[in-house]
Every structure is written in structure tokens, then in C-alpha cells.
Backbone:
């Protein structure tokens, strides 16, 4: 890395190289920084239908002039040995009132299993207004062999829900927390 | 330290030439040798990637499954893209940079010659690893070059090899980019101040900064895939609290600047060639520099237009849509300047000029289809169809690849000291241009009609256009053999003069043809540097 005699006066290859290497290293770090940044971004915008935090209980009066249809969709992730259904497909709710719903899951194997449900709310503009007070998705759910269990969800739809939303879809995907990689799966 | 002394002594020995045999190429630190290595490597990769493209087009010639298994078809689309992007286009431009930048700025060599040797020799290793996955249990990577999880995590034994080869390609590109920046900033001829630099050098300077900014982000993204698969992290696994969509954000934060990494040097090459054969100076040299810089800046804030369909807030769609459309402004400045350079010039149409003209015209078609894809509501219809395939092949094949061809024909006499066979060059040009359009133009219609990409079979309504596209692809592929023949016979032609063309600008034309092993051991005189440029 010795400087050639042709270098412009005062320009040192070594120090510029070091700065550029530093820049590359910083950008590698920036790639990882995008992970927490993305989380913050999703929390703020509701991007990705993310609603996974406990809501503070709203004290607002129920808005009886509106009726919102809340639909439940359940999905079991590929290869996961579960049965997972909502006890009812949908319900009519009044914004600002507390509601309960139950979901039932069954472990189809002879082994102890741990599952995690991941929620998503559509449309995106509603995701910040769908407040879960209590949800089985907040923690891992442990199931004994062949165990079947009902799991509770307690929620309020925020009266500030945008005018144009009359239907909210809450979708849960049920994951087996034991990783399914291609090598085991296929 | 003793080596430094030895090197200093070598520098005074003006007549020492290259080593003999294989050692010359393995241990070379000469920018011309390394440039040649890069160019030859990229040509080999161009043919390997091209053979994969022909497997794809042969399978798609008729509806139904005829020749290959769907899994292998998916491997072919994935490997074709990885090889063409990282193995053919990028190394070709780095090769041109190695050969030409020191000669254009009056430097004796690249600033960091030993690192230069490393950045090249990492590449054959990286691609050796990548190609070896073709023979592995579970097949070569088949989840697309974008490597989206969770699909890519289902890759078989090839998975860690894919990640490692991407790491190596990244390291090679970053080292190459650092070398180019240091060379340009520190080793220019004494009174070549920045805005006096040739436009090719400028475009490469900007490209090199883009490389340093985004290749590490790609390395980070694939490292996260690796740790998700093997070390229990959950960056992209929903069950563990991660989000697969986040990969798309990180990937395209790299991916969009990457497309300009592949096109900015092409702009540079074309901006060198058009003035020479129009016999006029480049129109708006400084505005070209500002346009390239604006494109580079904008490339960092438009990534989500690759993923409108993942679902994002309306405000997000609007932002990415308008930011993307803004790129058309500096790109328009460039196209305007090329046309204005030709305006009332006394033009001739040698092979490099033909390729450059086809570049301007066909790249612009690709730019316009890109503008169509930028429209968020329309993109939901076009997404993952052959319209996208048509778009990026128009900007990459008659865009980047044609610019590489143009550059190769333009500087070949300077490299070899002989004129290439002009009529074969013209034949190569015309066959390439006709077949590239026969191949990719029908894909617009297929995409608009709804044919999805990356699928080995299709509905019978798409049969005719697919047949046409496949015939075009075979024609294009085999026409490239003419180029190989031109290269093999490059030294058979008439002796080239030092200036080669009638009135080219730039310091590279002040050295003899073929360019001696060492050029500009002492910086060129300021006056000569000026005159060569003006």
C-alpha cells in the first residue's frame, strides 16, 4: 500500500482506504440496525397488520351508532401438526365495548408441543384500533400430547376507528415453535 | 518492509515486463492484467448464465413440461440471475474500470494493486462454490435470486454455500470499489480536477460509493438468513417474532442501488463513445455528473416499489411511487444529452457506436416500462408477471450488456494494438439487436396478459409469444459466439494507430496501441492532459 510517486500531494492512500473500509463496516451494521428500525416503524404505522402489544383499557363510551363486523381467520403454518379453529367465524361488535372470543387448538401428536399464535389485522388502517386486552397470542402455549384446549381473546375496537372501516379481519397463524427446516420437512 | 523496498526499486525499473506463464495471471498486480482477467471471467460467466437462460427458454418453448423438472427449472432461473448479475455484468464493468480508469486519469496503476489481485481471485472461488451447488443433495438454490425467506430456507445442502458465495462476491465488490475510489481521488494527473474527469470515471466513482454503501447490507441480510437457519435466531421467522417481509425491505434497500450499480458504468461507457463517433464533445458534461449523482441518491429511497403487493399504507405507496418517478428526470437529462451530442454531429456508425445507439434507444424502452411498473395501482396487476421480466431484461441486456459490448469494441484496438474485424462486429451487432427484441418484446404482452414469472408451465393462450421469445433467445445466444470469434481473431486485423478512431478524447488515446504494460510512470504533463480532454 505504499503510495506511488504519482499521488496527488497530500492524498494518502492508507487513510482513505481505512475510511472507506470503515464506511463498509458501518453499512454492515446499518443492515442490522434496520431490524429494530423496522419494528419501530411497524409499531407506529401498523404496517404488516401488527397488533401484538397489550392495549391499555379504553375508558371511552361505547359508540352505539356503529356496528363493526369482526371476522376471525385461522391458519396453521405448513407442516405444523395442529388443529386450530375459531369458535365462531365472525361477530358484530360496538366500538368501545369489551368482547370475548375463544379459539380452540389441538395437538395432533403424541408429544408435548409448544405453539405460538401470530396475529395480523386487516385492513392496515384498522390495525392500530383493534386493541387486545388479553390474548393467547401474548405467550407461548404449551400442549400435552393430544391435548385440546380453548384459548381466550378479550378485545375492544377503538371508537376512533376510521369511518370507512366496517369490517375488521383478525387473522392468526399457528406456529409450531420447534423449527421446521427443509431438511426435516421434506 | 523489505518488500516495500523491493517494490520501490521495481518502480524505477521501467522495462520490467510481466512474469511468464500462469504466474503472471495468479500473482499479477498490473491493472491491465487484472482488467483482462475480469473481462475474460465475465465473458465465461456470460456464457454459463446464458446456457441456463437457454434451458429456461427451451422449456418454455411450448406449454406443458417437456425437458426439465420444475425444481431444476427454478434452480435455473435463480442461478441464471445470480450468475448474470454478480458474475457477468458487475465484473465486466470492474474489468473496464481496471483497464481504463488509470489510463484515463493518467495514473500508473490502481492505488492498491495487491488488493486488486485479491478482489479478482476471490471471484472464481465464489462462483466455483455457487456452481458446485448444482451437484448437491437437494439441488442448486431455487428460491429466486432475491432469496426471500421462508422459501429460501427450504434450500437443501446448497443453502450455506449460497450464503457463503454471496459473502465472497460482496467482499470482492467492496474491495474493488475501495480500490477504484482511492485511485480516482488520489492518483489523478496533476491538473485533472474533479469536474474535468472523463464521464466514465465519474460514473464509476459514484458506482463505487454505491457498492460500498449497499453490498454490506446484502451481506447482513444473508447473514441473518444463515443465523435463522442454523443458529436459532428469528429475524425472518414469524413464529419467533420475526417478519419475513422485513427481509424484502433489507434486500431491496440493497437491491435498488444494485440496479444502478449495473447501469451507471454503462452510462459512462456510452457517454465516452457517442462523442467520439459524433465528432463533438459530450453535451452537458457537468449535468451528466449531477444527473448520475441524483440517480444514485434517489436509488436509496425507492426500494419499496419492488414490493407494493406486500400491503403497505397508502401514504407509503404514494411516497415510493412518486420518488421512483422522480428518477425519470435525471435519466431523461442523460438521454437528452446523448441525443444533443449527436445533434448535427458528423456521425459514423462503427460497431461501438451502433451498440451505443441501440443502448440509448432500447434502454429507454426499458426505462419507460419501469415507469409503468412504478405506478403503484398498476403494479399490483404487473407484479411477478413477464412484464417485469421484459422490463429488467430491456435495461440489463440491451442496457448494461450492450454497453459492455460497445466498450469492448471501442477499446479493443487500444488493448490489442489491432483493429478487430469490423464486418463481423457489425454482424454481431445486428443479430444481437434483432434477436434481443424478438426475445424480450413479446414478454411485455405475455406479462400484460397475466403470465406469471418463474413457472415452468403456462396456459396455452401464451404459447405463440413464448415460441417467438424462445426462438429469439436461441438466436441471441448463438450470435454471441461471433463476439468470441472477433476476440479470438482480434490480433489478425490491421495495426491500430495510437488514436485508433478519428478524434477520440481522453488520455487513454495518448499512449501507444497496444497500451504498454506500464503507462504513465510519470504523470502526464498538465498541458497534454488538458488537450486530450478538450
Residues:
Amino acid at each position: 500500500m505504499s503510495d506511488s510517486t504519482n499521488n496527488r500531494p497530500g492524498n494518502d492512500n492508507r487513510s482513505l482506504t481505512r475510511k472507506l473500509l470503515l464506511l463498509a463496516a458501518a453499512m454492515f451494521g446499518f443492515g442490522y440496525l434496520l431490524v429494530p428500525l423496522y419494528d419501530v416503524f411497524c409499531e407506529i404505522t401498523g404496517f404488516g397488520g401488527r397488533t401484538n402489544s397489550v392495549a391499555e383499557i379504553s375508558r371511552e363510551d361505547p359508540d352505539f351508532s356503529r356496528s363493526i363486523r369482526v371476522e376471525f381467520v385461522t391458519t396453521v403454518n405448513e407442516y405444523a401438526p395442529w388443529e386450530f379453529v375459531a369458535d365462531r367465524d365472525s361477530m358484530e361488535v360496538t366500538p368501545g365495548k369489551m368482547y370475548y372470543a375463544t379459539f380452540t387448538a389441538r395437538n395432533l401428536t403424541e408429544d408435548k408441543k409448544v405453539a405460538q399464535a401470530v396475529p395480523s389485522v386487516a385492513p392496515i388502517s384498522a390495525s392500530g384500533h383493534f386493541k387486545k386486552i388479553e390474548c393467547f397470542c401474548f405467550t407461548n402455549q404449551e400442549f400435552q400430547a393430544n391435548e385440546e384446549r380453548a384459548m381466550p381473546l378479550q378485545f375492544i375496537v377503538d371508537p376512533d376507528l376510521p369511518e370507512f372501516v366496517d369490517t375488521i379481519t383478525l387473522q392468526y397463524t399457528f406456529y409450531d415453535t420447534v423449527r421446521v427446516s427443509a431438511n426435516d420437512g421434506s | 518492509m523489505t518488500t516495500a523496498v523491493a517494490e520501490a526499486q521495481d518502480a524505477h525499473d521501467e522495462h520490467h515486463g510481466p512474469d511468464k506463464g500462469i504466474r503472471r495471471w495468479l500473482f499479477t498486480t498490473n491493472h491491465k492484467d487484472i482488467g483482462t482477467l475480469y473481462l475474460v471471467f465475465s465473458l465465461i460467466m456470460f456464457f454459463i448464465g446464458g446456457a441456463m437462460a437457454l434451458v429456461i427458454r427451451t422449456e418454455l418453448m411450448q406449454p406443458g413440461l417437456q425437458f426439465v423438472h420444475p425444481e431444476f427449472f427454478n434452480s435455473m432461473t435463480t442461478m441464471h440471475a445470480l450468475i448474470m448479475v454478480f458474475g457477468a455484468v458487475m465484473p465486466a464493468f470492474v474489468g473496464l474500470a481496471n483497464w481504463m480508469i488509470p489510463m484515463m486519469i493518467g495514473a500508473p496503476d490502481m492505488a492498491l494493486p495487491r488488493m486488486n489481485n485479491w478482489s479478482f481471485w476471490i471471484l472464481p472461488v465464489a462462483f466455483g462454490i455457487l456452481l458446485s451447488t448444482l451437484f448437491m443433495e437437494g439441488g442448486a438454490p431455487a428460491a429466486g435470486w432475491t432469496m426471500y425467506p421462508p422459501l429460501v430456507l427450504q434450500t437443501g445442502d446448497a443453502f450455506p454455500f449460497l450464503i457463503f458465495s454471496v459473502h465472497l462476491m460482496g467482499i470482492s465488490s467492496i474491495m474493488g470499489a475501495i480500490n477504484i475510489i482511492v485511485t480516482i481521488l488520489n492518483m489523478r494527473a496533476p491538473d485533472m480536477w474533479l469536474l474535468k474527469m472523463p464521464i466514465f470515471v465519474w460514473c464509476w466513482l459514484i458506482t463505487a460509493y454505491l457498492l460500498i454503501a449497499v453490498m454490506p447490507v446484502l451481506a447482513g441480510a444473508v447473514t441473518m438468513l444463515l443465523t435463522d437457519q442454523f443458529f436459532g435466531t428469528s429475524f425472518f421467522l414469524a413464529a419467533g417474532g420475526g417478519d419475513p417481509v422485513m427481509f424484502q425491505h433489507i434486500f431491496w434497500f440493497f437491491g435498488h442501488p444494485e440496479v444502478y450499480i449495473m447501469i451507471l458504468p454503462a452510462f459512462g461507457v456510452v457517454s465516452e463513445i457517442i462523442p467520439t463517433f459524433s465528432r463533438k464533445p459530450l453535451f452537458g458534461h457537468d449535468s451528466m455528473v449531477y444527473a448520475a449523482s441524483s440517480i444514485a441518491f434517489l436509488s436509496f429511497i425507492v426500494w419499496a416499489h419492488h414490493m407494493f403487493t406486500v400491503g403497505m399504507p397508502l401514504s407509503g405507496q404514494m411516497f415510493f411511487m412518486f420518488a421512483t418517478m422522480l428518477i425519470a428526470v435525471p435519466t431523461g437529462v442523460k438521454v437528452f444529452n446523448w441525443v444533443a451530442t449527436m445533434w448535427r454531429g458528423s456521425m459514423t456508425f462503427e460497431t461501438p457506436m451502433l451498440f451505443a445507439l441501440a443502448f440509448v434507444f432500447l434502454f429507454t424502452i426499458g426505462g419507460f416500462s419501469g415507469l409503468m411498473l412504478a405506478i403503484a395501482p398498476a403494479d399490483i396487476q404487473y407484479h411477478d408477471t413477464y412484464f417485469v421480466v421484459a422490463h429488467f431484461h430491456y435495461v440489463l441486456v440491451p442496457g448494461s450488456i450492450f454497453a459492455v459490448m460497445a466498450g469492448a469494441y471501442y477499446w479493443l484496438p487500444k488493448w490489442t494494438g489491432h483493429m478487430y474485424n469490423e464486418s463481423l462486429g457489425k454482424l454481431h451487432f445486428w443479430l444481437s439487436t434483432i434477436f434481443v427484441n424478438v426475445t424480450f418484446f413479446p414478454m411485455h404482452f405475455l406479462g400484460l396478459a397475466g403470465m406469471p414469472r418463474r413457472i415452468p408451465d403456462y396456459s396455452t393462450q401464451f404459447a405463440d409469444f413464448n415460441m417467438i421469445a424462445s426462438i429469439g433467445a436461441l438466436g441471441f445466444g448463438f450470435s454471441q459466439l461471433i463476439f468470441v470469434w472477433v476476440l479470438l481473431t482480434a490480433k489478425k486485423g490491421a495495426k491500430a494507430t495510437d488514436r485508433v478512431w478519428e478524434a477520440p478524447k481522453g488520455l487513454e488515446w495518448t499512449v501507444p496501441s497496444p497500451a504498454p504494460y506500464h503507462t504513465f510512470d510519470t504523470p502526464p504533463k498538465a498541458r497534454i492532459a488538458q488537450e486530450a480532454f478538450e
